[in-house]
From TrEMBL:
CDD domains: PBP1_YraM_LppC_lipoprotein-like (cd06339)
Domain of life: Bacteria
Species in which this protein is naturally found: Vreelandella gomseomensis
The protein, known as: Penicillin-binding protein activator
PANTHER family (UniProt xref): PENICILLIN-BINDING PROTEIN ACTIVATOR LPOA
InterPro entries hit by this protein: LpoA (IPR007443), Peripla_BP_I (IPR028082)
UniProt KW Signal keyword: yes
Keyword set, alphabetical order: Membrane, Signal
Annotated signal peptide: 1-24
Length: 513
């Protein structure tokens, strides 16, 4: 529940006092007038990073005290907190987390409370305040609303009657066939008593589909696959049968009771890449995405997450995949003559398919940008081992599902989730469809667990570590790998994997929207 403005302002002022302001607040009678926050923000544009961060913090403080909390939140969010002195980082964290809490933004609360991991000196009261807000954010993101997602008809029941509604014709039929095939094969390998019934979703309207599912006495429906149909469902108050849709709707939130959504979201991967790059200490990113609807959606997801964290996008390129790669790289990296100008670029985010992606690092090398870190989504990795071709991707960091990068994800194939199904499907399926096969396996497993939500919190699936978020959408936390000698390998760079900071980054990633 959102706090009242009066309570918000009182808490903000208390937070600032707890943080140890250098001077005592003047009385109401002799209080000096606030400076103009707009003027302060303009002034910050001309200052060096350290001074600019302090100036923006002052502007955010003034805006908060004036009751302009949305503007204060945006201003505080644009501060590079790493540039602040330790005491002012704590001050910023208290202010920003309070603003984010008042605006029901748990992701920003988590960003603010990362100062707890740095063990900065602070009063015990300030530490308790930040710990309480961090706990609220994690609980908000991790736990579905029990009232919204209550399934009394399934409580204490074993789910063994599942209807699968997928299109058998049309543009999505090939994808649907891969999903359905994986469910059937996994079901046979598991040898359980679940009854799977398949319906051709193209033959019915949504209401007719639910009528059929209810006539079949199914406990859960898997489907639909169409983004348009999922969007229609999430705008309803409720759906007649507990439903696991195999896509995400385009609404800002899923408001339908009993509706759960799961898919291989490229936008989620972009947001995870933004969180990873930020955790590694980068603040200024260049961006390369294809000039199409897919590139726009994924690019916007990265951009929004990056700016929410307080980072800057210094160059954003929407490239034509048919044009020379050098055209995009030269623009993204400020190439002048034969050399990239990287004074205001810390790293590059790349969205590309394998053929295009393999040309990017050699082009960067040519322009003397071989040491610039590159973060990418799973789309540059087709899953087939092509060592000679993938040598050109050496040092590129990317995420993928465990079934695609077993060595980096879990230390080898034998310890993968659902190893028997992995073996069979790897042998039988086309490499281009293997991620969908893994998704089909996880969809089956999620559906059988809907009677006990606790099983979905940190569930180790074929497509990642799965979490049920507060609006019924399944979030996937993906493992990271880096190409070395043309092979996806574990990342051993400090701050990514294998140390305390990296583990904290992994914990934070699962709270993505």
């Amino acid at each position: 529940m959102k706090q009242s403005l009066r309570g918000f302002l009182a808490a903000t002022l208390m937070a600032l006092l707890v943080a140890g302001c250098a001077t005592q607040s003047p009385s109401v009678v002799d209080r000096a007038p606030d400076r103009d926050p707009g003027q302060l923000l303009r002034q910050a544009e001309e200052q060096v990073p350290e001074q600019a961060a302090m100036t923006r913090l002052e502007a955010a403080d003034i805006l908060a005290r004036q009751g302009e909390r949305e503007d204060a939140f945006e201003t505080a969010g644009n501060i590079d907190e790493q540039a602040l002195p330790e005491s002012d980082r704590v001050r910023w964290a208290l202010l920003f987390s309070e603003l984010a809490r008042a605006l029901d933004d748990p992701h920003s609360v988590l960003r603010a409370t990362q100062v707890l991991d740095d063990e900065l000196p602070m009063p015990s009261r300030a530490q308790r305040t930040l710990e309480d807000r961090q706990r609220w954010a994690r609980e908000t993101l991790d736990k579905p609303d029990p009232e919204r997602f209550a399934l009394p008809e399934l409580e204490g029941e074993t789910i063994n009657r599942i209807a699968v509604a997928l299109p058998e014709s049309g543009a999505l039929s090939n994808l649907a066939e891969a999903l359905a095939s994986a469910m059937r094969r996994h079901h046979d390998i598991q040898g359980d008593d679940v009854q799977l019934s398949f319906l051709d979703a193209t033959q019915y309207s949504l209401d007719e589909l639910y009528d059929r599912v209810q006539q079949m006495n199914a406990q859960v429906m898997i489907g639909p696959l169409s983004k348009e149909q999922v969007t229609q469902l999430e705008q309803r108050d409720s759906v007649p049968v507990p439903t696991l849709a195999l896509n995400y709707g385009s609404s800002e939130r899923n408001q339908a009771k009993r509706l759960f959504q799961y898919g291989l979201s490229a936008e989620d991967e972009a947001r995870q890449a933004a969180r990873r790059a930020w955790q590694d200490g980068h603040r200024r990113m260049a961006l390369m995405v294809p000039d199409n609807d897919w590139g726009q959606r994924v690019g916007e997801a990265f951009w929004n997450q990056w700016q929410r964290q307080g980072g800057d996008i210094t160059n954003a390129v929407r490239y034509n995949p048919g044009n020379p790669v050098s055209d995009a790289v030269k623009t993204a990296l400020n190439v002048r003559g034969e050399r990239a100008r990287l004074d205001d670029i810390d790293a590059l985010f790349l969205l590309a398919l394998p053929e295009y992606a393999r040309q990017v690092p050699p082009t960067m090398d040519y322009y003397y940008a071989q040491d610039l870190p590159v973060y990418a989504t799973s789309h540059l990795h087709d899953g087939a081992r092509q060592i000679r071709l993938d040598q050109d991707l050496n040092d590129v960091m990317f995420m993928d599902i465990p079934w695609q990068i077993p060595d980096a994800a879990v230390g080898g194939e034998e310890v993968l989730p659902f190893y028997a199904s992995y073996q069979r499907l790897r042998e039988e399926s086309d490499a281009s469809m293997f991620r969908l096969m893994a998704m089909g396996v996880d969809a089956y497993e999620i559906a059988t667990r809907l009677s006990d939500f606790s099983q979905l919190q940190g569930f180790d699936g074929s497509t990642g570590k799965l979490f049920l978020t507060s609006d019924g959408r399944i979030y996937r936390e993906l493992p990271w790998a880096k190409f070395q000698n043309g092979v996806p390998s574990p990342i051993l760079i400090p701050g990514l994997l294998g140390d305390t900071q990296g583990n904290q980054a992994d914990n934070d990633e699962r709270n993505g929207d």
